[in-house]
Amino acid sequence: MLTTVAATGVDWSEVHAVRLLGIALAVLFLLWAIRRMFGGK
Question: Which domain of life does the protein's organism represent (predicted)?
Fold first, then answer.
C-alpha cells in the first residue's frame, strides 16, 4: 500500500493536513462522547 502511494507522487503536505483534520475531528468526537457519558450537555 505504501509503495503504491509513493509511486503516485502524493503531495505529502496534503496528506498530513487531511490526517491532522481527521485527528482533530476524532478528538472532538471523543470529548463530546465523554461529556455525554458523564451527563454533560
Answer: Bacteria
pLDDT at 31: 96
What nine digits make up the cell of 15? 496528506
Rg of the chain's alpha carbons, rounded to an integer? 16
- Cβ proximity of 41 and 35 under 8 Å: yes
Residue with cell 450537555: 41
**Does residue 3 sit within a domain?**
no
Q: Which residue has the cell 505529502?
A: 12
Provide the H-helix boundaries in 1-41: 2-7, 12-37
Domain extent at residue 29:
11-41
Q: Quick one: which H or E segment has residue 9?
A: none
